[in-house]
Amino acid sequence: MGRMEASPDGRRVLGVFAKQPLPGEVKTRLAATTSAEWAAQVAAAFIADSLNRLAAIDARRIVVFAPAGAEAYFTSVRLFGFDTLHQGDGDLGRRLQRFLSGQLGAGASAVVIVGADSPTLPPTFIKQALDILTTADVVLGPATDGGYYLIGCARRVPPIFDGIDWGGCTVLAETVARLGREPLRLGLLPPWYDVDTLDDWRVLCGHVAALRRAGVDPGVPRTEQLCLAELS
After folding, report:
1. CATH dotted code for 12-193
2. Neighbours of 68 (CB within 10 A)
3. pLDDT tens digits, residue range 71-108?
4. How far lies 138's CA from each of 129, 186, 191, 217, 218, in Å?
């Protein structure tokens, strides 16, 4: 477990869940139609670009990593102003709940989690989520695949992580259904996309190319380099 350090706003926390990009261990759906080695390159590019884009968020920034032996790899993310913390054991729901509960229990006023599967996610969405949590209890960022790219909580963590089909397209619907039993205020962000499959990758590359053609820097240089390499 990495050492926790102070941040510009220690009461607000941003956790980025990330897995060491080892061939065969990451982006398995993408690897199934490409190769394990190339999918690992994509995962590494996503991590680097995501952390670089989120380094200016005014919060305590933590890379919540897996597996347990990956701390040496993720030590380099300190260059971006992130601390490191092991995700721990259990399914995704248990790991999300553990991080949220731990940070709120340590005195955080608002905790937001994103993954490294959406490198083009606008940092303004993160800032919006943290602001929403000044009045809401939970904030969600719906993903176009039926899940969510962001979740955040303030004050306490509701029972919304058990029994979820994490590999399916109903994660968001199941989460909202569980919230329906709780007297909580929900805040919502605009939809965005994750990249898990080859089709998702092509959508991302098209989006990056469109931004570049429109005169907008996509802000994901390592990801953009891989898109261009695939086209060459």
Report:
1. 3.90.550.10
2. 11
3. 989 987 777 789 999 999 999 999 999 999 999 999 99
4. 9, 5, 16, 32, 29
